[in-house]
Amino acid sequence: MAFNTEKKLKLYYSIKEVADMLDVSPSMLRFWEKEIPIIKPKTTGNNVRQYTEANIEDIKTVYNLVKVRGFKLSAARKMLRENRNNADSKARVLETLIQVREELKTMKKSLDYLE
Question: What pTM does this model have?
Answer without folding.
Answer: 0.67
